[in-house]
Amino acid sequence: MTNIPYLDCNATTPLEPAVCDIMLHFLTEEFGNEGSRTHEYGVRAKQAVQKARDQVAAVVGAQRDEVIFTSGATESNNLAILGLCEHGLKLGRRHLITTRIEHKAAIEPFEVMEKRGYEVTWLDCDRDGRVGVEQLGASLRPETLLVSIMAANNETGVRQPLDEIGRVMSGHDAYFHTDAAQSYAKDLEALRNPRIDMISVSGHKIFAPKGIGALVIRRRGYERVPIQPLIHGGGQERGLRPGTLPVGLVAALGLAAEIAVRDREKRATLCRKMKADALNALGPLSPRIHGRPEQTMDHVLNLAFPGVHSEALIVALKDLAAISNGSACTSSSYKPSHVIKAMGYGDDEANEAIRLSWCHLTPEVDWEGIARRIKGLL
Q: Contact 76/213 with Cβ under 8 angstroms?
């Protein structure tokens, strides 16, 4: 379509060729319904789904029956948060904890829970975009039902201290959910912490198609997290997410997860080099960087050039790189980033922020050319 380097991989990633191939195979050749038990088409489809469960579960050290396939992380977040509503009301545990830097796919379900009679504690972050575990510890109450903190921010790429959060919660029985759309199959060890009860996964952030994701729901011993379905009409996905499974998309997600783990070090090395090249070229222009580079994902850089509006910068660079100024889900609203504002910046500063995000499939970027173009705006 274009030779312009695509630097918006946090919004969506290109498809891995092998992932595309397996998706097309199950869409056009072995296209059976995995719920059909009377013929080989259904059997083959069910085998493909079970293999994908194993592949998705293996990334975080879970079991196949702990994987619920969804349409993506937005649905997974909604299921994890809203699905606990009935249980909390029944027990009288109506306190929830989350952060001000979550994706809207988590923030809005929490706002719905507030309308249903829950109290939500909204944790702040520091200037570097990290949530304070001390504030979390002080916010936990006996009636706290759920803590939901994203693994890595979609705008800044800042990793949250999941291990420290898990330790703070070790003596409390509140459920712990993390939106891992940006870190699943990239940061492995953090998500293998057994204290994390639920993990939201999005396929199109790991080189799989759009429209497929998962919610990993770990058991505590023999106990399952008591979430209830949001929609009804069948027994699929352990009764939590009814509807015919899109076998081609499921198989694609499974293979994408497996390849991501297999090639993780190679991909990370490429992404780290690209970040170093970007910082070397842009550093002399004295940008304001949002989040310490060593605390952010290897493939993300969020920065601003004081006095230059992000929209003006995007237009100025449109023939050199495809970039963004925040979450793709809210990009049409033109509101200052709630994430950058939560880090202590004002509206004008938030409006200057741009996000650069790349991957192992990103072609060579003319960082020096980008730097020269930006210098002309300063």
A: yes
Ordered strands of the 353-357 beta sheet = 288-289, 300-304, 353-357
Over residues 87-135, the pLDDT tens digits come to 999 999 999 999 999 999 999 999 999 999 999 999 999 999 999 999 9
- Out of 20, 125, 271, 329, the active site residue is 329
- Tell me the per-residue pLDDT of 34-55, one tens digit each, with 9 for 90 and over: 777 888 878 898 999 999 999 9
- CA 349 from chain centre, in angstroms, equals 25
Q: Is 85 a catalytic residue?
A: no
Sheet arrangement for strand 144-148? 67-70, 213-217, 198-202, 175-179, 144-148, 95-99, 119-123
Dump pLDDT digits (tens) for 145-200.
999 999 999 999 999 999 999 999 998 999 999 999 999 999 999 999 999 999 99
Write the DSSP symbol of residue 210.
T
Domains of the chain: 17-261 (3.40.640.10), 264-375 (3.90.1150.10)
Q: Which long-range contacts (CB under 8 A, 24 or more apart) does 89-94 make?
A: 89/116, 89/117, 91/145, 92/143, 93/143, 93/144, 93/145, 94/118, 94/119, 94/143, 94/145
Token digits for 172?
A: 């409390």
**From the centroid of its chain, how far is CA 122?**
19
**How many CB atoms sit inside 10 A of residue 272's CB?**
13
